[in-house]
Amino acid sequence: MKDGSPFVSTTNACKLCTPLGACLAFKGIEGCVPFLHGSQGCATYMRRYIISHFREPVDIASSALGEKNAIYGGGANLKKGLLNVMDKYGAKAIGLATTCLTETIGDDVKMILSEFRSEFGDLSLPAILPVSTPSYSGTHMDGFTGALRAAVDVLAGEEKTPAVNVLSGFVSPEDIRHLKTICRAFCLPATILPDYSDTLDGGAWEEYEKISPGGTPIAAIRAMGGAPASLEFGRTLDPARTAGGLLEERFGVKRLGLGLPIGLRETDAFMAALEELSGRCLPRALGAERARLVDALVDGHKYVAGKRCLIYGEEDLAVGLASFAAEIGLVPVLVASGGSSGRLTSAVAAVSGDILREQPQVASGVDFYEIADKAKTLAPDLILGNSKGYRVLAKELNVPLVRVGFPIHDRFGASRVIHLGYRGAQSLFDRVANALIEKKQADSDIGYGYI
Amino acid sequence: MTTKPKKTVDPSVLKEEMLRKYPPKVARKRSKQILVNELDEQGHSQEIMSNVRTIPGIITQRGCTYAGCKGVVLGPTRDIVNITHGPIGCGFYSWLTRRNQTLPPTPESENYMPYCFSTDMGEHDIVFGGEKKLRQAVQEAFDAMNPKAIGIFSTCPVGLIGDDVHAVARDMKEKLGINVFAFSCEGYKGVSQSAGHHIANNQLFKHVIGLDDTPTEGKFKINLLGEYNIGGDAFELEELFTRCGITLVSTFSGNSSYDQFAKSHSADLNCVMCHRSINYVAEMIEKKFGAPWIKVNFIGGEATAKSLRRIAQYFGDKELIERVEAVIAEELPKVKAAAEEVLPTTEGKLAMLFVGGSRAHHYQELFHEMGMKTIAAGYEFAHRDDYEGRHVLPSVKVDADSRNIEELEVEADPARYRARKTPEELKALEDAGVEFKNYPGMMMEMESKTLIIDDINHYESEALIEKYKPAVFCAGIKEKYVVQKLGVPLKQLHNYDVGGPYAGFGGAANFYREIARLVSSKVWTYMKAPWEENPELSATYVWE
Ligand code: SF4
Ligand code: SF4
Questions:
Q1: How many CB pairs under 8 A join A and B?
Q2: How many A from CA of B484 to the centre of ligand 2?
Q3: Residues A148, A180: one domain?
Q4: Which of A3, A330, B397, B521 lies most in the core, judged by the most C-beta atoms within 10 Å?
Q5: What is the pLDDT of residues A210-225, one digit of tens each?
Q6: Which residue, judged by its Cα, is nearest atom 5 of ligand 2?
Q7: Which pLDDT belongs to residue A139?
Q8: Residue B163 and residue B125: Cα distance in Å, rounded?
Q9: What is the CATH number of the domain that holds B182?
Q10: Would you say the CB of residue B89 lies under 6 angstroms from ligand 1?
Q11: Closest among B291, B222, B208 to B257, alpha carbons compared
């Protein structure tokens, strides 16, 4: 479903498949093992991909269906698989995502699970969080969002808690750690879902851990229905399909939809929400970060102002980056995404409309072939996006690529890339300025020592 | 990090311990896939269960049929446009992750490897069929790239909705006037990548091999089969052959091109590296065109020398033999010197290899040359013949999964079959030690009381590591970080991580240095903070 694209096929996709997103979200729940109902190949591929970005162990189980199961249904294998995961991992939760195979054959997971529960009800069963994730509709972000909704759907109850829900979207482990620091600074108890800041960026182990330690505690998810409010990041989300939306519908937990707090203004909006929820003013430490950031924007303006920048990635990330780019003086010329929520254009306009004289081109549902095609005439000076655009875009055009988002597998430290908050904006700004300086230095015969 | 076992480990006891944790049914199955190596009086190994389905819910190293077909065998060829017919993930995940390198003859020459073409099926295609979209995708790829060949690869949903990819290929071939062929390599078809290798072999044989009869120049013409140019291995070997005066007609499929495949039947000898993934092509070429095959191994200095000598011996040409000896005489001492250099850090240490269908065997050579011992090894997707040797082939049970995969009926080509040697010549070569059509397998060459484990899983790896504390564990990136969390370095042997080449003489020296770096790194000693080394001290420090 490409908006106005002349092609039906996809060349060098700018999106990943739905269950991968679900697995990532499940990795952020304590004691949870992601499980794909389908053939083992999908699980292996996704593990490989996630591991190469985070450089951490990532287990994804599978029901390992073969041809026979593909024809007669995969129920028996699914049950066997669940038992083995319980047995071998002692999982507290199993995040069960379907794949194209089981969606195509129409396996009724709900029914298989209810059989499973009645057959093995005498065992202490983990929470099973089923989500339907056919890749032929949607992208990894739909899987991510859907998995969180499924988790809340199964687990959340009404028990009261002072902790606000923070549904932070697909951000880096460093971002999650930073969000915790921010909430702590406001003395605001918070349940961040998902929290893979340890599971996907942990330390060495004393001894073998079957499931990587960390994650949002299941007890905390159970209490999400009794929270004072939910903050849900992502301007292109449809609340009817999110965890925040479900908590509001079912438990009346007020949902505050915000953009990913990338850049100064989106972070300001986030801080305003936290001030309101906590009843406190912006803590000093954060105020100082903001001040430093603004100071840097002034000092570094000369390096970035007027430079043309191309942005791609998940829709919400792309919106945040567009907002950031516009406010620091870059000129976003193209904002592109493989996702197609239908809300990208309006979201980009909402965050940059009052700053930019001319709105950037916005392209949703596109692949890198099309992005590269458009880029030829746009003459960007800088690209913001993941590793996938390096070869056909950055290298071809000889333009620096500042790596953000997922996947980053040609640079070290992907888990520690920070995007959110004033600190994230500071880091992004420094990297953008330096990338432009480096390019200028490398391209010049003078060999500037001061620049 | 300890490098020698603290106390001697009895592998049989360890096996029992591992099995005890499984439910009875799983234990019964795994007990046939975990063996303590022991050869009988005839020098034959025991029977190992392999190429059987992975147990649901138990995390495996294995990938799918599609991965073996599109990713492994066809992936390294630069000038065939490979279109994945399916939803986006399968294609995306197989997009340049294996670090195959390629060197087009000129910067302008065709190279589609940086591209990942997919039909990106949507809901509509799943419900109403995807053939129309596939046709359009082929047309688009043709318009955009103008290739000489297009391959179509089926993923799981395609088989289920019944798209006839072969019919689409036929039609488009006719319409576009280029070669278009399809692979029914749906992921669920086999138990692992291995089924995909077979499917790839079949289709290459049916649709490409033998298309070009223009004679190839050169006196000593070979094909190198089962070499995928990971980390530049093929470049190393190509150079070696050139120096020896051996003409490489084609490689399946490292640094390869479509035209090479098309004329590969003109070579006079097929040299098989990875037996598992490509032996079918070797067999079929021999039947149809007459060139025999031998097993070679270019991993390890000695092994490289031996393989070169075998090739020279086969051609039996004095000049060639001398030239090969000269190259060996020049290169082998350098390799030996490199080994000497690392010996003080590597000697006596333990290695484990769990990877692929041939590397877990081949790389043992290198460890041996470094004075290291391979204490446990196993394949991810190999069959019994890769473990026990090809002599077991007649007794290998064909299960339902393998029966799915077509065995091509191949006959001698009436016009083009050409026996390369007379029966007498062949006999004489065999008597002189050249083994045709034979792969003796991994187990024969492993010491007794080592552990052989097929399709190993996390739990078993962890038990092995805990008991033996090896100095290095070789597997893939999926296993890497679990193993390293436990304080043991892991060397990636699928895609070599950032390293390579490791083949040939130069590659061997590279590998020694890489392993020496891994086993001597200081980093592992920092895992515990200084105050943790001494518990009493830390107690006083914290509480006072
Ligand atoms: S079949 Fe679907 S779920 Fe599996 S890898 Fe392909 S796109 Fe992803
Ligand atoms: S859907 Fe099938 S072909 Fe695709 S990755 Fe999964 S197992 Fe392999």
A1: 225
A2: 28
A3: no
A4: A330
A5: 899 999 999 999 999 9
A6: A42
A7: 96
A8: 10
A9: 3.40.50.1980
A10: yes
A11: B208
**What are the tens digits of pLDDT across the range B197-217?**
999 999 999 999 999 999 999
Nearest-Cα distance to chain B for A44, in Å, is 6
DSSP at B499: -
Taking the C-alpha atoms of residue B201 and residue B270, their distance in angstroms, rounded to an integer, is 14
Q: Which chain B residue lies closest to A373 (C-alpha atoms)?
A: B144
- CB B155 near ligand 1, within 6 Å: yes
For residue A337 and ligand 1, the question of a CB distance below 6 A is answered with no
Ligand nearest B63 Cα, by number? 2
Of B62, B161, B466, the CB nearest to A40: B62
A171 with A145, same domain?
A: no
pLDDT at A119 over 90: yes
Helices and strands: H and E segment counts in chain B: 23, 14
A114 close contact with B: CB closer than 8 A: no
Which residue from A152, A145, A104, A172 is spatially nearest to A341, judged by alpha carbons? Answer: A145
Is residue B456, in this structure, part of any structural domain at all? no
CA–CA gap between residue B477 and residue A225 (Å, rounded): 39
Of the candidates A39, A45, A60, which has its C-beta nearest B89's C-beta? A45
User: pLDDT (tens digit, 9 = 90+) per residue, A380-396?
Assistant: 999 999 999 999 899 99
| Same domain as A31, residue A117 | yes
Same domain membership, residue A298 and residue A434: yes
Is residue A284 a part of any domain in this protein?
Answer: no
Q: Mapping DSSP to helix (H, G, I), strand (E, B) and coil, where does residue B496 land?
A: coil
Q: Which of A8, A66, A100 sits opposite B133 (nearest CB)?
A: A8
> Do both A424 and A363 map to the same domain?
yes
- Nearest-CA residue for ligand 1 atom 4 is A42
Provide the domain limits for residue A317: 291-443
Domain count across chain B: 1
The total number of structural domains that make up chain A: 3
Q: Using alpha carbons only, what angle is made at residue A177 by residues A175 and A178, rounded to the nearest 5 degrees?
A: 65
Q: Is the same domain home to A30 and A150?
A: yes
- Residues of B carrying an active site annotation: 64, 67, 98, 197
Q: Is B436 on the interface with A (CB under 8 A)?
A: no
- Domain membership flag for residue A296: yes
Q: Which residues of A touch B117 (CB under 8 A)?
A: 9-11
Determine the atom of ligand 1 nearest the C-alpha atom of A101. 1
Residue B144 lies in a domain: yes
Q: CA-CA distances (angstroms) from residue B281 to A182, A238, B72? A: 61, 52, 15
State how far Cα B204 lies from the chain centre: 18
Instruction: Please answer yes or no on whether A88 and B57 come within 8 Å at the CB atom.
Output: yes
Q: Does ligand 1 lie within 6 Å of residue B126's CB atom?
A: no
ipTM value greater than 0.85? yes
Q: Which of A11, A63, A98, A395 to mutate to probe the B interface, most B CBs <10 Å?
A: A11
Task: Please state the separation of Cα B501 from the chain's center in Å.
Answer: 15
A16 to B92: CB separation less than 8 angstroms, yes or no: yes
CA distance B92 to A11: 10
Is A190 strand, coil or helix? strand
The residues, any chain, with a CB within 8 Å of residue B375's CB and separated by 6 or more, are B350, B351, B352, B450, B451, B468, B470
- Neighbouring-strand partners of residue B154: B85
pLDDT in tens, A51-74: 999 999 999 999 999 988 888 899
CATH number at residue A196: 3.40.50.1980
**Disruptive mutation site among B66, B92, B458, B465 for chain A (greatest number of A CBs within 10 Å):** B92
| Domain membership of residue B126 as a residue range | 65-187
CB contact under 8 A, B122 and A136: yes
Phi, psi of A168 (to 5 degrees): -90, -5
Output the pLDDT for position A71: 85
Q: Note whether B393 contacts A: Cβ–Cβ < 8 A.
A: no
Instruction: Judge contact between B120 and B90, C-beta under 8 A.
Output: no
Please state the pTM of the whole predicted model: 0.93
